[in-house]
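From the shared-data thread, chain only:
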Amino acid sequence: MSRRTIELGASADLLKARLDAREMAQAAGLGVMDQTRFATAVSELGRNALVYGGGGACVLEDRSDTLQVRLLAEVCDQGPGIADIEQAMGEGYSTSGSLGAGLPGTRRLVDRFDLQSGSDGTVVRIEIVRRRRG
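Structure, as C-alpha cells:
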C-alpha cells in the first residue's frame, strides 16, 4: 500500500495534489482516462477545501492488489461545513458564481463518493476501482 499526504494551503498545493494523484494512478496501472478522472476529482475536491474550507489536507492511497486497482483519496478541511449537502450536490449549484460542476461532477468521475460535513469541517472520500486485466 502506498500513501501520500499533501497539505492544501495555497494554489500550488492543488497542482501537487493533482500531479501526485495522476502519478499514483499511472503507477497503479490505470489507463489515461482513469488517470485523468482520478487527478481531476482530487484537484476539484482540493480546490473546494482551499476556497471554501480555508485549506486542509489530501491523503492519497493505493490499495491495489493482484485482482484490482483500488485508489482512494480523502480531502478534508476545517471550514464551516456545507449547510445543505443535498443542495450542494445538485447540478449547477454554486456559492461562488462558478458553473457549479464541482461536487456532482466529481461524484460522476469516481466509483465511490462519500461526503461528511459539519460545523467542524468537511471530509470527502472518493475511490476508483478497476479489475486488473489478466
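The first helix runs from residue 11 to 28.
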